[in-house]
Specification:
Layout: E1 2-8, E2 11-16, H1 23-40, E3 45-51
Antiparallel strand pairs: 1-2, 1-3
């Protein structure tokens, strides 16, 4: 499962977990969520992609 960590000023604030794992849908979902995160946190924001294995 692909998840995205929201890193603000070097600290992980939250994790974005897309419901669907199709790449095109992940891309659209992350674009929407990145706008929300930018509005929520003001400062240096970085999205770190990682794999989560079950």
């Amino acid at each position: 499962m692909i998840v995205f960590d929201v890193v603000v000023d070097g600290e992980v604030k939250e994790t974005i977990k897309p419901a669907n794992q199709r790449l095109k849908e992940i891309y659209a979902y992350v674009q929407l969520e990145s706008r929300r995160v930018q509005a929520k946190y003001s400062g240096s924001i970085y999205l770190n992609r990682r794999m989560e294995y079950k």
